[in-house]
TrEMBL record:
This is Serine collagenase 1. InterPro entries: CLIP_Serine_Protease, Peptidase_S1_PA, Peptidase_S1_PA_chymotrypsin, Peptidase_S1A, Trypsin_dom. GO terms for cellular component: collagen trimer. Keywords: Collagen, Signal.
């Protein structure tokens, strides 16, 4: 985002937040994205680990992971998730449109929050197509923050997403029969607006949606890095770039016979407060383990 634009946006965030409390839609231009923090930077997140709040200077110096810029039609199911965190600051995550009314994101991102807005057709965050407020947040009942387990939440949009099938389209869900697959060694694409590593003081969301393609690693190998990984997780190598701070909730998809479908939702990665390690896999929520829960709590129909 160019500095001029940022200056224009400065100071009107409060207006934007007040606007969300009412059914009125947000004006994309009214958000001051420069005030948005990654989850890891919020005082709420840090307090969980007994860490003191970061100074503004510390927030500006996090380091990052590579990827490729997406065109507006590459990942039409990508959804930006803006969390209006009250006193703990605003934060940002990624998410995925699963039907006109429902978005999946990480529970990590929205647990304890009540005011959330979803950005669609936002491959370029300086030119957001739609911002839609969220009318309900459903956290998976067994979500564990510390273990990164059952890390998913279903967001209900306050109105239907304007699906055009080109820039906005729900992702396909796995079929029930896909639940037997490990997906080990499949190529998987992760897409989000988290930190990219291209500059030191990068605010999130990054202006452009980015994606990286890497192979799914076995849970056994993944457990060498993260001992608490279990069958409800699916890990993806970060050799070609991978998710970083701000990518929580990002969709992980695979392609089979021309059909692209969702297999994961980004949960956590190895990151010091200063960056994301390419040496270890990224850990995602394994969607095939949650097909019943998603079907029961949304209007998505899972195919056999
Ligand atoms: C939560 O965990 C309990 C105990 O393991 C289990 O019985 C229940 O089915 C889980 N809930 C969901 C929605 O998976
Ligand atoms: C999008 O695709 C769906 C499924 O093929 C179709 O039912 C719908 O009419 C399409 N919508 C538009 C706006 O093209």
């Amino acid at each position: 985002m160019n500095p001029l634009l940022r200056v224009t946006l400065l100071g009107v965030l409060l207006t934007a937040v007040l606007a969300i409390e009412s059914p009125a839609e947000l004006d994309p231009k009214s958000i001051d994205w420069s005030t948005v923090r990654t989850l890891q930077e919020t005082s709420k997140f840090r307090a969980k680990f007994g860490l003191p709040p970061l100074s503004d200077d510390e927030i500006r110096s996090s380091r990052i992971s590579g990827g490729t810029i997406a065109t507006p039609t590459d990942i039409p199911w990508a959804a930006g998730v803006l969390i209006h965190g009250g006193t703990s600051g605003h934060s940002f995550c990624s998410g995925v449109l699963i039907s006109a009314r429902f978005v999946l994101t990480a529970a990590n991102c929205v647990s304890g929050e009540s005011t959330v807005t979803v950005a669609l057709n936002a491959a370029n965050m300086a030119n957001i197509g739609y911002l839609i407020s969220v009318s309900n947040i459903l956290i998976h009942p067994n979500f564990s923050w510390l273990l990164g387990r059952d890390d998913l939440a279903i967001l209900t949009l306050s109105r239907d997403a304007p699906i055009d099938n080109v820039t906005i389209r729900p992702v396909l869900m796995p079929r029930r029969s896909d639940a037997q697959k490990s997906f080990n060694d499949w190529m998987a694409t992760t897409a989000g607006w988290g930190n990219t590593g291209n500059r030191d003081d990068e605010p999130i969301p990054t202006q452009f949606l980015q994606w990286a393609m890497d192979t799914v690693t076995s849970n056994l190998v993944c457990q060498l890095s993260y001992t608490w990984v279990r069958s409800t997780h699916i890990c993806v190598s970060t050799d070609n770039g991978g998710p970083c701070n701000g990518d929580e909730g990002a969709p992980v998809t695979v392609r089979e016979a021309g059909r692209i479908f969702l297999i994961g939702l980004h949960s956590f990665h190895y990151s010091g407060i200063r960056g994301c390690d390419r040496g270890r896999s990224a850990v995602n929520t394994r969607i095939t383990e949650y097909l019943d829960w998603i079907e029961q709590n949304s209007d998505v129909v899972i195919q056999p």
